[in-house]
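Recall the central idea of this unit: under ordinary conditions, the amino acid sequence of a chain determines the structure it adopts. In this exercise we apply that idea directly, starting from the sequence alone.
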Amino acid sequence: MHEIEDGFDLRMDWRKLEKVVANCKGLVPVCVQDIESGEVLILAYANELALQTALERRLCVLWSSSRGALWIKGDTSGDYLELKNVFVNCEQNSLLYLVKPVRSGACHTRDEFGRTRKSCYYRQVSFDDGHTLAQ
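Accordingly, the structure predicted from this sequence is:
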């Protein structure tokens, strides 16, 4: 079991943005949202190459800040996300990808039955203690 991905203790990576800035230049956050349900699937990053490739291929394409490489969502898992619309925010420093999942999942993690999770947001922080998570 991966404690970060499957555990029920809150272990936020409060230094994530510092790592992104130190290792990758020219990125903006991208919120990836299911166009039909409105559910937020992923929060990731894109650079100019990722956006241009996404627009050309009509697929969710991001920049992997951990690998330092172009990330075509679905190339490894088969869980492609068709790009239906792209919005830019008022300050032009973040993007919203509206997508349609080709299969059932978007997250790289799997549930207790081995199925790809639909969204990366599958645990909820407890209001009672702020440290435990529930599915």
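The mean pLDDT is 89.
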